[in-house]
Design brief:
Elements lengths: L2 H24 L2 E3 L5 E4 L2 H26 L3 H9 L11 H6 L2 H24 L2 H21 E4 L1
Helix pairs in contact: 2-3, 2-6, 3-5, 5-6
């Protein structure tokens, strides 16, 4: 391999590595004065993420309603509505702007909703469901403590 080809290969690898870091790991972020990471999105992307968070909150309210009425079917249906199936197709442009830890937290939250739904149906144990809901909500609290969505 000649020097020009080697130099071109090294430059291409550096560009690919930088792109991987920016697109997969870091996303489109900046620091905030309050210690949170600001995720910079366009208006439509921000609306999509915030709508998903509001859907989580609505599911949590319905799960609590189901628990208060001892209606485990309502609990399961409400939890499943925010499970993995609710993720839909996230545009590639948005996925690239979200930091990897944010994406991991989101996937884990959807999975916890699914597990809560399955256990509510199978076990019908409100104490177990309340413990699962408490643990699931730790994801919500940690996400809001770590991140801020901005335009």
């Amino acid at each position: 391999m000649n020097k020009t080809c080697l130099a071109t290969t090294i430059i291409l690898l550096a560009i690919i590595t930088a792109g991987f870091y920016k697109f997969i790991l870091q996303g489109s972020t900046t620091e905030n004065s309050d210690g949170r990471i600001i995720i910079l999105l366009d208006d439509g992307e921000r609306n999509l993420v915030l709508a998903e968070m509001r859907a989580f909150l609505a599911s949590i309210q319905q799960i609590n309603q189901g628990l208060s009425e001892n209606d485990m079917e309502l609990v399961a249906v409400s939890a499943r509505s925010s499970g993995n199936a609710a993720q839909g197709n996230v545009p590639g442009s948005l996925a690239g702007k979200l930091p990897i830890d944010f994406k991991k937290l989101g996937r884990d939250t959807h999975a916890r909703f699914d597990q809560l739904a399955m256990d509510a149906e199978d076990l019908e144990d409100s104490s177990h469901t309340m413990e699962q809901l408490s643990n699931l909500m730790k994801n919500c609290v940690s996400c809001h403590a770590m991140y801020r969505i901005d335009i």
